[in-house]
Recover the amino acids of this structure.
């Protein structure tokens, strides 16, 4: 099974420039996540997609960050303009979670998250 | 707000030793708990996932336990090897219901070094 693919692996930009990251999840995985991991900390969720819809973007700095998942497969995360504090590793993850809706009820199951190797962003 | 804490922050042990990593969380209304491993410059690899209804999970030399009422989980590594050296992260998933059931809150990790 091919893993989660991310590109580029590294990116160095100056503050106020723009940058975009790309993620291709594991085939068939309905849920896709973007996490930000600052050095020495655990990852923090930025945005979660279920197929091509946004499930949670409460921690996404929407004044400068944007993300999309067209056709429910690949996803891009953009930062415009970048700040020094955006220096971090940006991790994409996917999982097989599905939510099925029946009459008057929803059932769901969850599975482990599979992470890509991340994009290390340095803002100077 | 859910907070996850891992102790110790770093651990160095000789090869062959059994060891325990600790994780605590403030809100016991969790959906699941996962332990991950992260190697330098790499993403995270899921090691074990414990559903909220379970008490423990085992995989090879790894055993993870969950005590929701006390807000604690432990990861036990038996007969440690140099290849186990990595950062180990604990993450809790929010309670089901609504649409954020897959959102994970991570601890800051424990850096493990196993020396020959």
């Amino acid at each position: 099974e091919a893993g989660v693919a991310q590109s580029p692996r590294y990116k160095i930009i100056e503050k106020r420039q723009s940058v975009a990251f790309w993620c291709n999840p594991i085939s068939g995985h309905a849920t896709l996540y973007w996490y930000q991991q600052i050095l020495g900390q655990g990852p923090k969720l930025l945005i979660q997609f279920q197929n091509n819809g946004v499930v949670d973007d409460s921690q996404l700095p929407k004044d400068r960050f944007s993300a999309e998942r067209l056709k429910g497969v690949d996803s891009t995360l953009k930062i415009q303009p970048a700040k020094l504090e955006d220096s971090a590793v940006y991790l994409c993850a996917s999982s097989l979670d599905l939510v099925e809706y029946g009459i008057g009820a929803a059932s769901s199951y969850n599975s482990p998250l599979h992470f890509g190797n991340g994009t290390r962003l340095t803002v100077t | 707000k859910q907070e996850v804490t891992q102790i110790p922050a770093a651990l160095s042990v000789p090869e062959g030793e059994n060891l325990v990593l600790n994780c605590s969380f403030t809100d016991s209304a969790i959906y699941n708990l996962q332990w991950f491993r992260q190697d330098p410059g790499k993403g995270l690899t899921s090691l074990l996932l414990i559903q909220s209804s379970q008490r423990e999970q085992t995989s090879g030399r790894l055993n993870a336990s969950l005590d929701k009422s006390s807000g604690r989980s432990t990861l036990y590594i038996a007969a440690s090897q140099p290849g186990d050296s990595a950062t180990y992260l604990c993450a809790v998933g929010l309670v089901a219901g609504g649409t954020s059931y897959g959102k994970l809150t991570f601890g800051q990790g424990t850096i493990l070094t196993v020396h020959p």
Q: What stands out?
A: The CA atoms of residues 25 and 71 of chain B lie 5 Å apart. Chain B has a mean pLDDT of 90. The first strand of chain B starts at residue 4 and ends at 7.
